[in-house]
Amino acid sequence: MQGVQHLNLTIKGEFNGKRAKLKKISCNNGVFTERELLPDFVHFILVDSVETLDFMIAPYKEDSIRLTCFYPPVDNMPLFTDTVRLDRHKILMETYTPGDGFDIPIISYTSGISVQGGIWFCGLRDSKVEPRKWYEKYGIDDYVYYTIRLEEDKPSSKGTVYVKISKQFWGLMLLYQKYREQATLTQAYKAPAFPLGAF
């Protein structure tokens, strides 16, 4: 399928149940805008020392693409989906260089460094320049990149319902989904409501 790109991203660290917040940062004419990708009631928890996020982009409309992040990748469950303006001179690219803040760049949809006769993507990726400075240093514009920020998972206030996503709970949710499907197929009994409070 033309225009489809895929990138498997592995992150390593001592996560120990930390909450991961994902953000989209867009550069347009050198002006940066930021947007959180997960609602505040979604707690995305990293439990292993090695975690994998699977990114895929595919054409969506004539002038745009859909970027979807899957977690865990083996189950093909979308964590978030974002729509970005299509540009044939851009690729989905990992970002290696963090900035000064708590948000760590993990992936981008960008052009590369302009060189005589082409675009140098690897030069940009390996330049050790954080994505927020690409416009200033290389004149690259109209790009997006995505960041991850880790923080302690604080419980929501009493009486607040929230959704926790992690490898531990994902398996339980899939098991429950299969249970519900089986109950619907057999019509032997009505499955109980999903116990969100159990998580």
- What are the low-pLDDT stretches, counting only 5+ consecutive residues below 50? 171-180, 183-199
Query: What's the rounded overall pLDDT mean?
Result: 82
Number of H- or I-type helical stretches: 3
Distance between termini? 39 Å
Oligomerization state: single chain
Our estimate of the beta-strand percent is 35-45%
Could you give a short account of the major beta sheet? 7 strands, mixed
If you compute it from the alpha carbons, what radius of gyration comes out, rounded to the nearest whole angstrom? 19 Å
- The secondary-structure class comes to alpha+beta
The SSE order reads EEEEEEEEEEEHHEEH
| Percent in helix | 10-25%
Question: What is the general shape?
Answer: globular
Total count of strands: 13
Précis, in short:
15% of the residues lie in helices and 43% in strands. It has helices spanning 121-125, 134-138, 167-186; strands at 5-12, 18-28, 31-36, 42-46, 50-61, 64-70, 78-85, 91-94, 104-110, 113-115, 118-120, 143-151, 163-165. The strands form 3 sheets. Strands 2, 3, 4, 8, 9, 12 and 13 form a 7-stranded mixed beta sheet that branches. A 4-stranded antiparallel beta sheet has the order 1-5-6-7, with no helix packed on it.
Write a structural description:
The structure is a single chain. By secondary structure, this protein is α+β, with helices and mostly antiparallel strands. It is 15% helix and 43% strand. It has three helices and 13 strands. The strands form three sheets. Strands 2, 3, 4, 8, 9, 12 and 13 form a seven-stranded mixed β-sheet that branches. The chain is globular. It starts with a strand and ends in a 13-residue tail after the last helix. Residues 171-180 and 183-199 have low confidence and may be disordered.
